[in-house]
Structure formats: C-alpha cells, structure tokens
Design brief:
The complex is a heterodimer of chains A (about 280) and B (about 650).
Chain A: H1 11-44, H2 50-55, H3 65-92, E1 106-113, E2 116-121, E3 126-129, E4 131-135, E5 140-146, E6 151-155, E7 159-164, E8 170-174, E9 180-186, E10 199-204, H4 206-218, E11 222-223, H5 225-232, E12 241-243, E13 245-246, H6 250-256
Helix pairs in contact in A: 1-3
Chain B: H1 3-8, H2 20-42, H3 46-54, H4 59-90, H5 101-135, H6 144-166, H7 191-219, H8 232-264, H9 277-311, H10 318-331, H11 347-375, H12 384-407, H13 409-415, H14 419-449, H15 455-481, H16 498-527, H17 569-576, E1 588-591, H18 596-612, H19 616-635, E2 640-643, H20 645-652
Antiparallel strand pairs in B: 1-2
Classes of the chains: A alpha+beta (about 280), B mainly alpha (about 650).
Chain lengths: ~280, ~650
C-alpha cells in the first residue's frame, strides 16, 4: 500500500511526519488513562454489582484543590511541550525558508490553471504541463500563483501543501532524497474539473534532468501569450505536455492580470503591465 | 429590461432539474410536501396544526418543531451521503460513477451546509427550547414571540435550500463557498445565491435566538438560583449563546459582502478589481470556529447531566467545568487561522494560532476527567443516553488527538484538505455533537411527551451508529495519509484507494440503518406510549428542576415558581423529603398564539427567492410583508392569556396518560 505521508521521500515531509508522531505519543499520556478509567469505572461501578452499592458516594465531587489542580496541570504540561514543538517546527519548516543544501536551489514557477498545472523553468526557458521534473538532492524553490480560483499545491511524499491564489504568490521549498516518481494534486476545490488536476513530480539524476531539458528544448513548441490563452481555457485530465521555449514575462503577466486596479477577467492588454 | 425579465427575473425553464437523479430529488421534495398536506387535510387537522403548533409561542412546542425540521433535513443530508459514498466507491479509472462532477459538487456543498445549519443547529435550538426554561425554573423564554420568529426564519432557510432541488441549482463551491470560486466569474448560476440566502435567513434566526436565550439565562432564573447554582446544561447554553451573539453578526456581514459582489458587481472578494479572497476566508472562519463550539458546548452540557444522573452522583468538579466552558468560549476566538495554515502566513502567525488551538485541548481534557470522576464510586445505569456518552468519550478522545495533530502547523501542511481532516471534523461533530443531542433527546423525551422512547430500538441505533461510524471514518483517516484530498468525484485506480472507499460506503450504510432505527424507535414509542408512560415526572431519578413537575410538562412549566437554595436543587429537595403541602395555585399568564412568526418566515422566503432570481418586485413584496408583520405585532397589545388558578389546579391533579 502506498502511503506517502507516512513514507516521506524528502527532508521536509520527514520532519512533518516526526511532528505528527511526537504529538500522538504525547497525547497518549492522557488518552490511555482516559480509556482505562472509562471502562474500569464503567465495569466496577455498574449498577447491580454489589460493590457499586457498597461504594456508592452520591455526594463525592472532589471539590478539593489538589485533585482539581492535577486535572489542569497534567494536560497543561503536555500542551506546553507541544507548544514548544509547534514554535520550533513551524519556524524550521516555514515553507518560504530555503532548504539547507550544498547546491543552489532550482527555481520553478507554478501556475494553477482551470484545471491543470503549468510549470515554468525560468533558468532553462522551458515549461511543462501536469509534470514537474527536478534533480534529486537539489532543493527546489516553487514560486506559485493561479490563473484560476484558489487551489492548493501538494506533493505528499515530499512536503505539505501551500495555497495557490490568483493575483498573489506563495512559495514552497521541497527536496527529494532519491530519484523517484511522486503523485501531486490540488487539495482545494477549484471547480468542475478539479478531480482531473493531478500531476506527477519526477526526481531524477542530474544527467537525466539535463537530458530532459535538452529534449524538451529540441521539441520546440513555444509557450507565448497566444498558446497560453488556449492553454488557460478550462480543460481537465490533460496529458503531460512540454514547451521548448517560454515567453520571458509570461509568469509576471499572469500575476499582474489580477493586480491592476482597472483589471477585469477578460479583454485587457497584458503588455501594459510588464515589469 | 424586458417585461418578462421584470416579471420572472433570471427564472426560466432551464432552471428545472437536469438529469434523472436531480429529478428524483425534486420529486421527493414535491411529493413529500403534497403527502403531508394531503394527510393534514384528510384528518381535518388544519385547525389543530395552526392553533397548537404553527402559531404556538410555547418553547416546548417550538422545540419539537425545530427537531422535526432537523429530522427532515437529516434525511436529506443522509441521502446526500449515500450518493457521495456510491460515487467515490465506484468512480475509478474508466468508470465515472453515477454523478457528474458538478452534481457531485452540489451534493457535498449541500450536505455540509444542511448538516451544520439545518440539522445540528436545529437540534441544538430545539433541545435548548425544550429544556432551558424548565432547568432554570422559568415559565417561558425572555421573548416568546421572537422565539417563534427565529424558528420560522430557520424554517425559511430550510425551505429555500430545498427549493434549490426543484428550481435552479446549488453552490458547487463547498459548504463555506470560498471566493473566487463562489464569485460570479466562476459560479454564474443561482447556486451560490441559494447557499447565501438560505444561510443568511436562517443565520438571522439563530442570532435572534442567541439574544433571546442569553436574556432568558441572565434575567429569568428562578429566585435563589445564582449563577454558580445553575445546572451545567444551562451553563453550556450560556457559553454557546454568548458565542452566537458575537459570531453570527460576522457571518451575516460576510454573506452580505459576498452577495454584494455577486448581485451588484462589487469587489470585496473577487480575484480581480482589488478584491481579496483571503479576507473572506478569515471572516468566514471568524464565525466558523466559534460555530463549532456553539454546537459542542450544549452537547457537553447534556453529557454532564446524563453522567451525573445515571451515575447517581453529583457532577464532579462543577467549578472546574464552569471555568473550562468559559476558557473554551474565550479561546474559540483565537484559533480561526488554523483553518488555513497553508495560506502562506509567516511562521510566527502560524505558530501562535497552532499553540492557541492546542491550548483548547486543556479545558476539554479537564471536562473528560470530570465526567470520568463523576462515574467514580457511582451506581451507573447503562441506559441508551449513557451508551451514547461512552461512545462519545472513546471517539471524541481519538478525534481530539487527530485535532491536536492538526493543530501543529507543519503537520497540518500535510493533512489539510485531505480526507484525514474530513474524518477529524466528522468525529468531532458526529460523536461529540450528534451523540450528545441523541442522548439529550432520549433523556428529556419523557419530560416533553409523557412517555419513554423505546429502549431496545435506542440501543440498536447506538450500536449501528457506533460500528457504522468506525467503518465510515476509519478508512478516511487512512486515505488522508495516502494523499486523498477531499471533494474528489473521480480518482486513478493506481492509487489503491478504492477498497477503502468501499468500506467507508458500507459504514455509511450502517449509519443510515442506525438513523432508520431511530425513526422506528420514534414510531414504536408513539404506538406503545400507553405501555411506557412516565407517571412520576422523574423517571431517571433526576437532579435538576425540570424533573420536579409532572410529565409532560404543562404549558406554564411551573404551577408554583420554585425557589432555589442549592446546586442540584431537585436532588436536595428529594433528600430533604419535605412533607408535601397542597400548594396555593395562582392565575398564570402565558403568551397568546401569534401567526406573525410564520408570516415573517413566509415573507423571508419570498425575499430570498426574489434576490436569488433577481425578481425585484418580489423582493419588495417580501420586505414590505416582513415590515408589516413586525409593525402589526408591535401594535398588538393583547398578547397574554390567563390560565386561571382553578385550571392550573385541575391540570396539576390530573392523572398522567
């Protein structure tokens, strides 16, 4: 059975899993006694058992400070420990924070469309649909926006998700330990074709990555404003596709489309907003 | 604007259902309404229905009507469950199941909206209406007419959401309809408008109820019942109503802003034009998180009463419980951001809200310990309310652990929007809220009707719900770890999810059998009511004032208003065993019936329908109608009816059933 959240393939997902496990173990300190007491009391003090009648203390309510205090204290200590973990792990795993590694991160721009994912490689000048490829062991810096309703970008084997919104950018840093193919999807409902919005994340060796870039470039198939407009029209369950060249300002123009005060969804001059 | 557009707005024949399943839903609604109307006519019961129910201002009758509406809506919510579970169990690979993607999305959006607004809220206000005045020794709520108006606004919302089955469609954007998906650019049909206006109208009813019950608790407690002598259920309702009064205005404003975007072309939350969708998400959860506690606090109150009564003991740690309630009320305002840790906020913000969320586990844990130590050295009777409590502790504690895991922001990055999250909040709402309300309805049923609910069917229902729940939601926790996101109408077979979805469908089927058992339980109990009467008024050997009068509780509740000296007043009275002297009865004033409440509800439905379909003259008719009802009601000075002392004495000395 393939359970990516419990079988992480990168450092981010691994630490996230550790936090889950520590939390469950700490909670067990309270939960196990609760279950024991629930069934023990239910059995021991059931009406009809002679002991229950003998031991019955109808007015006992332990309104004494020490007992009361311990009720509050034990869960409080556990929550204090959890709070420290929360503070540290949230800062350590801030999705915007670059990952430590020997090699510089690879930049990949991501656009959530109705209903597919567009990946743009600004340094390589290529793009792909519903498939993202990167070298294993290299940190990847995703820079995300949407030309669609809100989505959420998630590769469970590698890292937790980040929301993707039109007119705004978010960021996510991930890394894969080994070569492999991982499932990715949108985790936030974005309309009719939302279920057909899955993609694959391929982590490959450096050589395979370079070979892939070259073959994609050789395939030509330019991504410019015209082919982008056709691509952005609603469609789902799209097969993987590659673009050998990408108009340089495309990502910024998608972002700026929603940011100008006079902007509307259709019929605007994208050229005006290029930085 | 053409004449036909003026008359019919956006309404056309295209608004009728599109396929067989949608027609089925529409025909069930129309058929159901026709059958009910025919039966009432056949039994010549219109006068009785109008006099004793529709226009009644007696909170016990209003409470029963709330619960009946909720049961009807529950049936619809469960139909939705059936369709979703079949779809997800079958729609794999080349197979695409029984529903289109759009229809599936309408169904999950409707399921969530209905279960929260029209089932959970309806049960909650129903039980509060039935029990709260009795528990605090009051004859009525603070504003009896407002109570009726609240109920009819709730019903108007329910009517609108069902109307969407027949005319037009429903939102496909989920139960909280996030923009920009819910904006006109992406959802151009009437669906989101149905969502907005059914919630808006019902929400205003809830807000008015909150004001009403808050005033009732603060001003109408029996003489001598200081706050620290209130029954625990009354305390939890107090906390919940404070939350209603502060949270529901946020919902009202949020829905109003979204409808301004959609109806008048404004840009509060649109993607373009300077709107900010995250503002909506913040606002809706600023209401949405307190809403969870609005539902769960009264359930905690019910369990507090049930455990103490069936253990034959005082509630352990009463003072702790009270502090825990108010800690929860306060903290529930500081956690809304945990619904979108994945928005990309900074680590400081996420960590703060994560820690605040985990802190809520402390008062909740304290409550569980207090219930357990109420059982300690008790004499525990395992009636069905007590079984619901046992099931609650087990499931709710496990769901709570899942909640603490989700409160860790980095864990939430992995589990947010997955089926793990869906399983978590269903655990809290089903095992916490619903099990609590089921326990409460069983517990107080004899007080309201004068006879017991059939215990055999109650126990069957409990086991079906418990086993069904574990089978239905256990697989969803696992599916979340497997990377299954919520709201998928189709997935790839290579993911290996299908068998888990099939198990979940079996579990959902068992839950439906559990619900069916509860319907059978009700029918059997009514049929056998002469065999299971509550002749004493105190069938469980109760502790609080509602058990001090005959069952069913008379319209005026208390023939002689009680004076309270102790916590668990009725228990202490029984212990002291004071000799019963024949009380001196006096004339009692009760509110006269009023038809204005149901009329306000009808005109509110017209308002909603007018806006949804842009039929502006209809909107004007509705607004004028509501205003006229309110004005006429304010000029009606003859609103009280006197029950003479002799009549009170006759009722009090009457034999039960």
């Amino acid at each position: 059975m393939n359970i990516p959240v419990l079988d992480p393939q990168g450092p981010v997902a691994l630490l996230e899993l550790h936090v889950m496990i520590i939390t469950v173990v700490l909670c067990a300190i309270v939960v196990v006694p609760v279950f024991f007491l629930l069934f023990y009391f239910a059995w021991r003090y059931r009406a009809g058992s002679p002991r229950a009648s003998a031991l019955h203390l109808p007015d006992w309510d332990h309104d004494n400070l020490a007992a009361e205090f311990s009720w509050w204290l034990v869960p409080t200590i556990i929550i204090v420990v959890l709070a420290i973990i929360a503070w540290q792990s949230t800062h350590a795993l801030d999705p915007y924070k670059p990952l430590a590694a020997d090699v510089p991160p690879m930049e990949i721009d991501v656009v959530a469309l109705d209903w597919k994912w567009l990946f743009i490689y600004p340094a390589q000048g290529i793009a792909s649909i519903n498939k993202v490829e990167f070298p294993a062991g290299t940190p990847v810096h995703f820079y995300l926006t949407a030309d669609a309703p809100m989505n959420s970008f998630w590769i469970p084997a590698l890292a937790g998700q980040i929301m993707v919104m039109p007119g705004m950018t978010t960021q996510l840093n991930v890394m894969a330990d080994h070569p492999g193919t991982y499932a990715g999807m949108s985790a936030n409902i974005s309309g009719e074709g939302f279920s057909g919005m899955s993609f694959t994340a391929d982590s490959v060796s450096e050589d395979d990555f370079d070979a892939w870039v070259s073959s994609t470039k050789a395939g030509a198939n330019p991504l410019d404003q015209n082919s982008y407009a056709a691509l952005a029209a609603p469609s789902s369950y799209l097969p993987v596709a590659y673009y050998g060249t990408v108009e340089q300002s495309l990502f910024d123009s998608i972002l700026m489309k929603y940011m100008s005060a006079s902007s509307s969804m259709e019929g605007m001059d994208m050229g005006m907003h290029m930085p | 604007m053409t004449l036909s557009h003026f008359i019919f707005g956006n309404l056309s024949f295209a608004a009728l259902p599109e396929n067989a399943i949608a027609w089925g839903g529409a025909l069930v609604v129309v058929g159901g309404v026709l059958v009910v109307l025919a039966l009432i006519t056949f039994f010549n019961a219109w006068g009785w229905i109008w006099r004793d129910w529709l226009t009644s201002l007696d909170p016990k009758r209003i409470g029963i009507m709330y619960i009946l509406v909720s049961v009807v809506m529950f049936v619809r919510g469960l139909f939705d469950v059936g369709l979703m579970r079949v779809q997800q169990a079958t729609s794999v690979g080349d197979a695409h199941g029984i529903l289109t993607a759009t229809h599936f999305q309408e169904i999950f959006s409707a399921h969530g909206s209905i279960m929260i607004f029209f089932v959970a809220m309806g049960f909650m206000f129903g039980i509060v209406n039935l029990v709260l005045p009795l528990q605090i020794g009051a004859r009525d709520v603070a504003f009896p007419f407002l109570n009726s108006a609240s109920f009819w606004l709730f019903s108007a919302g329910a009517a609108l959401i069902n109307l969407s089955l027949i005319v037009g469609d429903f939102s496909t954007a989920g139960w909280l309809s996030y923009p920009p998906l819910s904006e006109l650019a992406y959802s151009p049909t009437s669906g989101v408008d149905y969502w907005i206006w059914s919630l808006q109208i019902a929400g205003i009813g809830s807000l008015l109820s909150g004001v009403n019950f808050l005033a009732t608790i603060v001003k109408m407690r029996a003489r001598g019942m200081s706050y620290m002598k209130m029954p625990m259920f009354a305390w939890t309702v107090f906390g919940a109503m404070v939350l209603v009064v502060f949270a529901f205005p946020v919902l009202t404003v949020t829905l109003a802003l979204l409808s301004l975007d959609r109806t008048l072309g404004m840009h509060f939350f649109t993607a373009a034009g300077g709107g900010n969708m995250m503002m909506y998400v913040n606002l809706i959860w600023a209401w949405g998180h307190p809403e969870v506690y609005i539902l769960i606090l009264p359930a905690f109150g019910i369990f507090s009463e049930v455990v103490a009564t069936f253990s034959g003991k005082k509630l352990a740690g009463y003072v702790s419980m009270v502090y825990a309630i108010w800690a929860i009320v306060f903290l529930s305002w500081l956690v809304w951001l945990h619904h979108f840790f994945t928005m990309g906020a900074g680590a400081d913000v996420n960590a703060f809200f994560g820690i605040m969320t985990a802190v809520i586990a402390i008062p909740t844990g304290v409550k569980i310990f207090n219930w357990l130590f109420t059982m300690y050295r008790g004499r525990i009777r395992f009636t069905s309310p007590m079984l619901w409590f046992m099931g609650f502790v087990v499931l709710f504690t496990l769901g709570g652990v899942a909640g603490v895991v989700l409160s860790e922001p980095v864990a939430d990055y992995q589990l947010h929007n997955s089926l793990f999250l869906v399983a978590h909040f269903h655990t809290m709402i089903v095992s916490g809220v619903l099990f609590g309300y089921f326990a409460g309805i069983t517990y107080w049923f004899p007080k309201v009707t004068g006879f017991h609910l059939d215990e055999r069917w109650g126990i069957r229902a409990f086991w079906l719900w418990l086993v069904g729940f574990i089978l239905a939601f256990g697989p969803l926790y696992i599916l979340g770890f497997m990377g299954a996101t919520r709201r998928l109408d189709h997935y790839d077979p290579s993911l290996g999810w299908q068998w888990l979805f099939i198990v979940a469908a079996v579990g959902a089927f068992l839950i439906m059998l559990g619900f069916l058992s509860q319907i059978i339980q009700l029918v059997v109990s009514i049929r056998d009511r002469k065999l299971n009467p509550d002749t004493t008024g105190d069938p469980w050997y109760g502790r609080t004032l509602e058990w001090s009068m005959r069952s069913p509780a008379p319209e005026y509740n208390f023939a002689v208003l009680p004076e309270v000296t102790e916590r668990d007043e009725f228990w202490e009275m029984k212990k002291a065993a004071l000799p019963r002297t024949a009380p001196a009865y006096e004339d009692i004033e009760v509110p006269r019936n009023s038809g204005a409440g149901i009329l306000i509800g009808a005109f509110a439905t017209v308002i909603g329908f007018g806006i949804i379909w842009h039929i502006w003259w209809l909107l004007v008719v509705g607004l004028v109608g509501v205003a006229a009802c309110i004005i006429m009601r304010t000029f009606d000075e003859d609103t009280e009816r006197v029950i003479p002392a002799a009549e009170v004495a006759r009722i009090e000395n009457m034999k039960t059933i």
